[in-house]
Write a structure and sequence with these properties.
The complex is a heterodimer of chains A (394) and B (230).
Chain A: H1 3-12, H2 14-24, H3 27-39, H4 44-57, H5 65-73, E1 80-84, H6 90-96, H7 103-110, E2 113-116, H8 125-137, E3 143-147, E4 150-151, E5 160-161, E6 166-167, H9 168-176, E7 181-185, H10 187-191, E8 204-205, H11 207-211, E9 216-218, H12 225-238, H13 251-254, H14 265-269, H15 280-283, H16 302-305, H17 314-317, H18 329-332, E10 344-346, E11 354-356, H19 357-393
Parallel strand pairs in A: 1-2, 1-3, 3-7, 7-9
Antiparallel strand pairs in A: 4-8, 5-6, 10-11
Helix pairs in contact in A: 4-5
Chain B: E1 3-8, H1 12-36, H2 55-83, H3 90-94, H4 100-111, H5 127-151, H6 163-175, H7 178-210, H8 214-220, E2 222-227
The chains are: A alpha/beta (394), B mainly alpha (230).
Chain lengths: 394, 230
């Protein structure tokens, strides 16, 4: 899609968005949010700055800025059911635990988080009751956020949740059935993550592969909170998921490569590389390509928006990107502190023995050279022998 | 005394393409190693500023130019193999190596260090050559595809998915993602190194063993054949 087409597409939706906002927006809600913001030390100006930032981040035309601000104040918003499957809860942790809450988080806390395994007080039977009533009440309206992969081997018995010991497979199938949109939050939910890494004993898969349903992936280990809130805001504004790329990730967040927007890119082009941790180049902020940065292979927006309220991000802190938003990154991007050319290729039938591409190629080239040598010596000897035989016969 | 007759073996177009491919492979392998592990044009920190040098970007530019030269050389060579007026040799590439009967004497000759060429072959290539060149074409196509996938990685943007990426996406998935495409590209490069090694040796060996001038034939176009009777 060209930028002109994208602008036309969004401008054509303007009328629908206005109608939608007229239904959902109320002044009381806005007043309430303003008070909430004031309590946390944000001014109206901060909020509007945030709204224009989100508009730009979502690739919306500038006319949408007041509408994004309006949509953020809507209280009667999409209910969210947040499931935890096979994972480390790191995505929720990184999302919720910051020194001071940002506007992004305030807005997110403000939405009706109907069900969240680790945040709610209730436990045991009562949890199931809450969940079931929520599903019944918001049938076909709620957003199901899934965090974590789904073990599928042996009927998914490797993951059991809740008082009834439901397997993760059954549980996610039951809850996603009536969801309006399913968001796979984090690399585990999107592609299986660490438990799907070799040899993957539990047969863990991403939500899309395990259940075979339409999913919007928001991968990352952990993903940026902006990616999540932006996707939810887009849902609120347009009542549909944002345009996605070929791996079903929102295009506005995962459309560009880390490498292309990296602050150290100039050093890459200049051939200035960190050779060793803590060397002179590392102090000068040179490119981390030789230290195994996988930014050239990774699509994400870290280099544009950074993490933790724009404080910093991995490459800014001096370690290379590990490619956490790409499928199967634990296997494909390893070793994390060596460039891709040092990656081991598992030799088929070698019982997990690995060799780098240069080792394999070098070995084969060496074998060829030995073959050439043997053949050359053999030919010379044979030619001499034949010459002698000729002389003798003469 | 032996007598030789001249035989026109390579057309001008094929000779030209051969050397263009040769040069581009040399450049591509060298610059490819540099891109995988930048070993050259490094300087002590503090002596130069980033705006004074542009080595990685220049090496990548040379790699891309050589890559497009290589792509068009391969496309032209395949085109010539099918529609050349003088020497349409697509059957040589595709089917000659499937001929089991020719494999036996050829391998026998090579393995017993006999003076090379197998007498009585009607074709331009013996089956070993035919298989090697067929493999060369296949690996060239694979290398071009993996190279284009990596080359177009930055075509994508937040505005939309580039059409080239849409086309190559199934192939990328087949390899298992961009990291594996990158490794495959590196691994296939070793085929070309091994191919050049073996190819150059074989040409020299045939030239010496058969005295048919196969080394110079790629420059002049003429090979020599032994004349039976004066």
């Amino acid at each position: 899609m060209r930028i002109k087409d994208l602008e036309e597409y969004y401008n054509s939706m303007l009328g629908k968005v206005d109608e939608r906002l007229k239904d959902l927006y109320s002044e009381d809600d806005e007043r309430e949010l303003n008070e909430e913001l004031k309590k946390n030390g944000f001014t109206r100006r901060d909020f509007l700055k945030w709204a224009s930032f989100m508009t730009a981040a979502l690739m919306l035309p500038p006319v949408f800025e007041p509408r994004v601000a309006k949509a953020a104040t809507i209280k009667q918003r999409t209910p969210v059911i947040w499931l935890h499957l096979a994972e480390c809860t790191g995505c929720s942790e990184s999302f919720l635990r910051t020194r001071e809450p940002s506007i992004t988080q305030l807005i997110f806390n403000y939405i009706s988080l109907t069900y969240h395994d680790t945040l709610m007080m209730a436990s045991g039977e009562r949890v199931e009751k809450v969940l079931n009533t929520a599903i019944q009440k918001y049938k076909g309206q709620y957003v199901c956020v899934i965090e974590g992969g789904i073990p599928t081997k042996d009927g998914g018995i490797f993951l059991r949740i809740g008082s009834k010991g439901e397997t993760g497979l059954e549980r996610s199938r039951r809850i996603t059935r009536y969801a309006k949109v399913v968001l796979a939050f984090g690399t585990c939910a999107a592609y299986g993550g660490v438990q799907a890494a070799y040899p993957n004993p539990t047969g863990a898969k991403g939500v899309r592969d395990a259940l075979g349903i339409e999913v919007v992936n928001v991968p990352g280990c952990p993903p940026n909170s902006i990616n999540m809130v932006g996707t939810v805001l887009h849902l609120l504004l347009f009542n549909k998921v944002p345009p996605t790329d070929l791996l079903y990730r929102p295009l506005w967040a995962y459309g560009s490569r880390i490498h292309d927007y990296c602050e150290r890119r100039a050093h890459f082009d200049a051939g200035e590389f960190v050779e060793e941790w803590g060397d002179e180049g590392a102090k000068k902020g040179w490119c981390l390509y030789k230290m195994g940065c996988k930014g050239p292979l990774t699509y994400n927006d870290c280099s544009r928006y950074r993490f933790n309220q724009g404080t910093n991000w991995p490459i800014g802190a001096g370690h290379g990107c590990i490619g956490c938003s790409q499928p199967d990154f634990w296997d494909k991007m390893a070793p994390f502190e060596e460039p891709n050319e040092k990656a081991g290729i598992r030799i088929p039938g070698g019982k997990g023995v690995e060799a780098t591409s240069d080792e394999i190629g070098g070995f084969l080239a060496g074998a060829t050279a030995v073959g050439i040598g043997v053949h050359a010596i053999g030919s010379v000897i044979r030619a001499k022998v034949e010459k002698n035989r000729k002389k003798e016969s003469e | 005394m032996k007598f030789f007759k001249r035989k026109y073996e390579w057309t001008v177009a094929i000779r030209l393409l051969h050397w263009i491919t040769f040069i581009s492979i040399g450049v591509l392998v060298f610059t490819g190693f540099y891109i995988a592990w930048p070993f050259w044009f490094t300087h002590t920190p503090g002596t130069k500023e980033a705006y004074n040098i542009f080595s990685m970007a220049n090496v990548r530019l040379i790699h891309f130019i050589a890559a497009f030269v290589f792509i068009f050389a391969i496309i032209l060579r395949i085109y010539l193999a099918f529609v050349s007026w003088v020497d349409a040799d697509w059957k040589e590439f595709l089917f000659r190596w499937l001929n089991v009967r020719e494999w036996i004497p050829t391998l026998k000759n090579y393995l017993t260090f006999k003076p090379y060429g197998v007498k009585g072959l009607k074709s331009k290539y013996n089956p070993v050559q035919s298989l090697a060149y067929f493999g060369f074409i296949i690996f060239s196509i694979l290398q071009i595809i993996t190279g284009l996938i990596l080359y177009t990685m930055n075509e994508n943007s937040i505005r939309g998915v580039a059409w080239v990426q849409k086309i190559f996406f199934p192939i990328t998935e087949l390899f298992g993602g961009y990291a594996d495409v990158r490794i495959a590209h590196h691994l296939i490069m070793w085929f070309f190194i091994i191919f050049v090694l073996a190819h150059v040796y074989m040409v020299i060996a045939h030239d010496v063993g058969e005295k048919n001038g196969s080394l110079s034939s790629m420059f002049t176009g003429w090979k020599f054949e032994e004349k039976k009777n004066k």
